[in-house]
Design a protein that fits this description.
single chain; alpha+beta
Length: about 250
């Protein structure tokens, strides 16, 4: 009889333990799914950048060598055909150092929003890449939501391995923008769209609340494993910023 009572108590105990595990499991699995989405975004950014840099008429290496930061937005999809709004998530990495001249550092997650990027046919996804060409443009993106064309000057970036003689005209723009859809890569104007730090994604990636400035300027984090392919690629192509010589 005592043996049966012991088995009954033991059985109830295991049922309670199992119930507790099942109650906790959904939140644990949800956290894993969220984290994997952020990591997947970084991996997609690396793949997008690699493919664009391999294109014969891709981003000119001369411009990349002068850029302070690079923003990659893979697979931006049109949100509503009638309204014309779009929304994309990606990442920004900047060169280390107060003057943005060193190797590429840990990335911050960013969001792209706005009606002017909603030109895709049939809701097709489009990849976007932004080159931030001066210190003012970099600091603007680090501290606030930026409306392109108003808070920061933007121009459609030139393509091809070599640049025309009017390269300085492009460098005067704070941000140069590019798009790729259906295999076609070109400079594109995104005036009226906005770029902002994705604070939720940054918290999920680094495990604590951090601003874009904490990540990029203050260097409070190390490069996440999922971001290493993108950083390694940029360091290989352009390890340090090219400076103008007198």
């Amino acid at each position: 009889m005592n043996g049966q009572k012991f088995k009954s108590k033991s059985h109830k105990k295991w049922i309670m333990v199992l119930a507790a595990i099942l109650a906790f499991a959904p939140s644990a699995f949800a956290s894993t799914r969220v984290d994997s989405k952020v990591e997947s975004r970084l991996q997609n950014a690396a793949a997008t950048m690699q493919e664009i840099l391999n294109m014969p008429d891709g981003i000119p290496r001369d411009l990349l060598a002068k850029a302070r930061c690079v923003v990659v937005m893979p697979s931006v999809v049109k949100a509503a055909f009638v309204v014309g709004g779009s929304y994309g998530r990606g990442t920004m990495t900047c060169r280390k150092g107060n003057d943005f001249s060193g190797h590429w550092g840990a990335p911050a997650m960013y969001a792209l929003e706005g009606g002017s990027i909603g030109f895709q046919i049939g809701g097709e996804a489009t990849d976007y890449v932004f080159l931030v060409m001066n210190d003012r443009g970099a600091h603007s993106l680090l501290h606030s939501k930026v409306k392109l064309g108003a808070d920061a000057s933007i121009a459609a970036g030139p393509v091809g391995r070599s640049l025309a003689a009017d390269t300085d005209a492009y460098i005067r723009a704070e941000i140069l923008s590019y798009s790729r859809a259906r295999g076609v890569f070109a400079g594109v104007s995104l005036e009226g769209s906005t770029l902002r730090p994705d604070n939720k994604a940054n918290r999920e990636l680094y495990g604590r609340s951090l601003t874009a400035e904490d990540i990029i300027i203050k260097g409070e984090v190390t490069i996440p494993e999922a971001a290493r392919p993108l950083i390694a690629l940029l360091d290989q192509i352009s390890p340090e910023r090219e400076r103008k010589t007198a």
